[in-house]
Amino acid sequence: MKVIEKYNDSLHNPYWKYQLGPESYEVKDTPLRVESIKKALRSDERFEFITAKQFPERLISRIHPYHDYILKTGLSLKNDEEEFYPDLFPGEGANLLKKNDSPLWGGIWCTDAVTPIKKKTYEVARASAETALTGAELLREGQEKTVYALCRPSGHHAGPRVYGGYCYFNNAATAAEYLLPAGKVAVVDIDYHHGNGTQEFFDEIKSVFTASIHCDPSNEYPYFWGYTDEKGKGQAAGTNHNEPLPKNTQLEQYAGAVDRILDKIRAFKPAYLIISAGFDTHISDPIGGFKLRTEDYISIGKQFKSLNLPTLVCQEGGYNIDFLGDCVKNFLIGLM
Ligand SMILES: [Zn+2]
Predict the structure, then answer these.
(1) How many angstroms does the Cα of residue 99 sit away from the middle of ligand 1?
(2) CATH class of 2-335
(3) Any catalytic annotation for residue 67?
């Protein structure tokens, strides 16, 4: 299986610590996550590493209206350590006609104040999207059946209006847009957190089926999306399916949710499958609350393999670097 990778800059390393009731959490999107995955995959000769290609900027900018804002804000920073966070978020009814290009207006492009823009952020986010695009191209040209895009930063919380949740450009959505002229696409998100950005991208597009299996958002990020009554809008009604599961979910319950989604994908008959694969569902993940074990990802991968579709896997979350690489490897082995 081809493993696509690109730029992995240690200068883009968001870190967020927060306290919720008695519990404290740390989220580190460190380059060591990529190293953990590379180490596991390099130990197995079934994986072949290739470097992502460069693609025209417009493939990313045309679907991310905050593209120029992220680029220019990064360029305006004085050094590699500086971080920029918007701290003003206009609510409903704000007069957005008066906005200008100043970073101070950045709150209109972002859902939160924990997703920093650094000098290198645009570069790594673009490389991450190009990693997914390279995988999509291999599928579209019929060169590969299953490919893995080692994306960092993740993309699934970045939407068609705003970025956030450590995500800047939506890698899976960028790949889906690229594949769409060649046939219908199904995007399934298996990260612990609901793929709100991806869902919003295709909420009104009936040629893309989206689904997500995640922790019940009534008590987990992203809180405002991911419920069962979100089924797609207008002509795309019925093309989104959410499977919120309780904390402490183990394999049996998880596999049932996967099966329900696979049935819907078979009925939709897509030409391509994209899996937004996060491994913060692992029992030892520092921010996740599910109880999947390292070996469970083999059988989950096998479930998706049963669809027999050209498949692109895009890396999303997963924060325990002692296990992340083996979880990814097992999932991909299941898909082979
Ligand atoms: Zn996640």
Answers:
(1) 32
(2) alpha beta
(3) no
